[in-house]
Amino acid sequence: MNLKRLLRRLPEPPSESDFRSPVHDERVAARIGLWLGVAFGLCFATGLLSHGIQNPPGWFTWPTRPVSLYRITQGVHVVSGIASIPLLLAKLWSVYPKLFSRPAIRSLPHALERGSILVLVAAAFFELATGLFNVAQNYPWSFFFPTAHYAAAWIAVGALLVHIAVKLPVIRTALRRPVREPEEASKRTSALSRRGFLLGTGAATGAAVLATAGSTVPWLRDMSVLAWRSGKGPQGVPVNRTATAAGVARVNPQWTLEVVGPRTARFTLAQLQAMPQVEAELPIACVEGWSASAHWTGVRVADLLKAAGAEPMSTVVVESLERAGKYRSSVLPPIHAADPLTLLALRLNGEELDIDHGYPCRLIAPSRPGVLQTKWVSRLEVMP
């Protein structure tokens, strides 16, 4: 009996109608949702490009020009992901009163709709959280980040499309209505207005982008207080994986480069240095979103292939002195192998390569992810 009396005295749980702030309005939710959809769309599209470059299907070709193309697309990928964080939080704040709508489930279609929203929110948080950890190169989990991130992206986008399809009539109506109704213009209230909330969300998103975009956009680096790896490292270029971490801190003085084609050619470091040297200004652009331009000097890969009797337009496997790890070797597509700016670099910014940058030589090719710019190269092999 005492328990029943206690339960009667407990306050009733809130209902959706109890939340009367102007920010919990369909006009606000629709506009933030539109901005969030654009950010998600850019992030998803550029993420697919990055995945395709690193795991190319047979029909996929990535161009070598402009030389900064991957730098741009991956920068957009990471920056749009950063922008999505305040937008997602603002979107959830504008609609969270719907959690208290009664009845919680009205029908089977309504249950499916709510379930899709749960999947969407969970996948979005997973993508944004793991993406942040990735740009910081911190992996407190046992799964392989690229595979999980790629799979969750498809889940998030699928759930997003379902949500848009269900809510499209509401979205269209809300976007047609002005944020500020005429009769509201003369009202003064202490509550945050719809317009104020939207402006605040835009400002927070802009601040997040400005604080981080300098990792990719050089002229923003002085303003991007949270930019990562934007200019520090040996010879003025950041390093993700050091020689010590890769197990190649010492290189055998008798090192030679092996080039395998119709015939096999071998080159000592002195022989490579005696060959015609090509200079190129090319960026290193990593999947974490940071990038840095540098001045490289080395030998054209096309010239090395010719020395082994191979055509420059060949698919080439580039192998490293590193003996373990997913990225100890890379595949150079024909369009990149034949490009006159694709080099086995021997010097960086006028100096002999630092060991952490791949001494005695490393691959540098235009418009390629940093993880495919193989360091400590020991062998080039033309695929049949």
From TrEMBL:
Spans traversing the lipid bilayer: 32-54, 74-96, 117-136, 148-170, 197-220
Key word Protein biosynthesis present: no
InterPro entries found in the cross-reference section: Mopterin_OxRdtase_euk (IPR008335), OxRdtase_Mopterin-bd_dom (IPR000572), OxRdtase_Mopterin-bd_sf (IPR036374)
Domain Oxidoreductase molybdopterin-binding residues, every copy: 253-383
Keywords: Membrane, Transmembrane, Transmembrane helix
Protein name: Molybdopterin-dependent oxidoreductase
Lineage: Bacteria, Bacillati, Actinomycetota, Actinomycetes, Pseudonocardiales
